[in-house]
Design goal:
The radius of gyration is 23 Å and the shape is globular. With 338 residues, the chain is of the alpha/beta class. It has 11 helices and 9 strands. It binds NADPH dihydro-nicotinamide-adenine-dinucleotide phosphate and the ligand CCCCCCCCCCCCCCCC(=O)OCC(=O)COP(=O)(O)O. NADPH dihydro-nicotinamide-adenine-dinucleotide phosphate (NDP) binds next to helix 3. Putative oxidoreductase. One of its GO terms (molecular function) is oxidoreductase activity, acting on the CH-OH group of donors, NAD or NADP as acceptor.
Length: 338
């Protein structure tokens, strides 16, 4: 199988552009105007391709050998992020509540076909994000084990289904502790070491529901709105220390999020929702998280047309958005016969 380097690929592309231009000239296919437009268009495509290529190379260099901590690595998006960052040569610290699942993932990564010297065996740290004391000892353990953290990916999270009237405040608190206070505590525990070396990157997986609230998700949407707000503040405050903050807000992803969601009384929802099952693939979203991290993007909305329009509608025509959400609530209540 032949393998061409990025420079060879660019040279081949420019060669084709040249051949095309010569044929146009030889056969006088186009008039003078189109002859000016086509090279301009092709040139722009070439420049864009070159820009993308350089961006990809820069991302690779940024991730290679970087210490990357990923929470919620046992499942879904976190697990796919672990695969992408591992293949790019990151020194991973994989976090979750289930030691066995983390060990299984380490075995899966290290025994996969992608073997190369640039890859590093991941470390694992087990803790519950809803237990603030456990979070602070986990941060100590991480720093002791790897020295410094270059990139912290706050991915772990739990969702919720229920009506506000039937939801115990303990459930609101638990969702908030897992999705908001846990990541905040972990970030605060890691930040001083980043500030000391004046470099670091905090990546947060929020949700479209960090930008708009939809009915029967109160605890989840509230925790994601709080996450967006906190990390937007952090980005501004960390600028003098050259610490980057990236907030990624995806739409539905095919993971176990709805299966693992809690209901108003704290019991498991345990249903694979149609919207989740038909969502984006977790591997594709992990690639988008990887690029957003490498390109040090500040805020990324990873969603289809309707959710994206809904986010704009919430700001530009809130009354219309609220009435759409009210009819959505009415429809959902009717379909459940309540
Ligand atoms: N799936 C979707 O449609 C979307 C998901 N997201 C976000 O993506 C992130 C990842 O979720 P996703 O992969 O979809 O869902 P999964 O349920 O598949 O994964 C959730 C991960 O979070 C971990 N986790 C949950 N609770 C805790 C806790 N108390 N302490 C430590 N770890 C915990 C789980 O680990 P454990 O094995 O210990 O349970 C698991 O690894 C979440 O923040 C979610 O809000 C955003 C938009 C859409
Ligand atoms: C000018 C025309 C505007 C049309 C606007 C239409 C409004 C449509 C409403 C769209 C709502 C989108 C909700 C998306 C929710 C989402 O993607 O959430 C991601 C998650 O975090 C999923 O978690 P869950 O637990 O809810 O599965």
């Amino acid at each position: 199988m032949s393998y061409s380097t990025p420079i060879e690929k660019t040279e081949t592309f420019l060669m084709y552009v040249n051949v095309f231009r010569q044929s146009v000239r030889k056969w006088k296919i186009m008039d003078i105007t189109s002859m000016a437009i086509i090279p301009l268009l092709l040139g722009s495509v070439g420049v864009f391709g070159l820009y993308k290529l350089l961006q990809r190379l820069r991302t690779r260099a940024y991730i290679q050998d970087a210490v990357v901590v990923i929470t919620g690595a046992t499942s879904g998006l976190g697990k796919e992020c672990a695969k992408v960052f591992y293949r790019a040569g990151a020194r991973l610290v994989l976090c979750g509540r289930d030691r066995e699942k983390l060990q299984d993932l380490v075995r899966e990564l290290t025994s996969s076909g992608h073997k190369s010297e640039k890859m590093h065996k991941p470390h694992t740290v087990t803790f519950d994000l809803a237990d603030i004391e456990a979070v602070s000892s986990a941060a100590e353990e991480i720093l002791k084990c790897v020295g410094n953290v270059d990139i912290l990916i706050n991915n772990a999270g739990i969702s919720y289904r229920g009506t506000i009237l039937d939801t115990d405040v303990d459930v609101d608190k638990m969702v908030m502790e897992t999705n908001y206070f846990g990541p905040v505590a972990l970030t605060k525990a890691i930040l001083p070491s980043m500030i000391k070396k004046r470099s670091g990157h905090i990546v947060v997986i929020s949700s479209v529901q960090g930008k708009i609230s939809i009915p029967f998700r109160s605890a989840y949407a509230a925790s994601k709105h709080a996450t967006q707000a906190f990390f937007d503040c952090l980005r501004a405050e960390m600028e003098p220390y050259e610490i980057d903050v990236t907030v990624v807000s995806p739409g539905y992803i095919q993971t176990n999020l709805s299966l693992n969601a809690v209901t108003g009384d704290g019991s498991k929802y345990g249903v694979m929702d149609k919207s989740t099952a038909e969502g984006m693939s977790a591997a594709d979203v992990a690639l988008a998280v990887f690029s957003a991290t490498g390109e040090k993007k500040k805020d990324v909305l990873l969603a289809g047309l309707l959710p994206t329009l809904a986010v704009y509608l919430r700001t530009l025509a809130p009354k219309v958005f609220f009435s759409l959400m009210a009819s959505r609530a009415k429809k959902e209540r009717k379909s459940k016969g309540s």
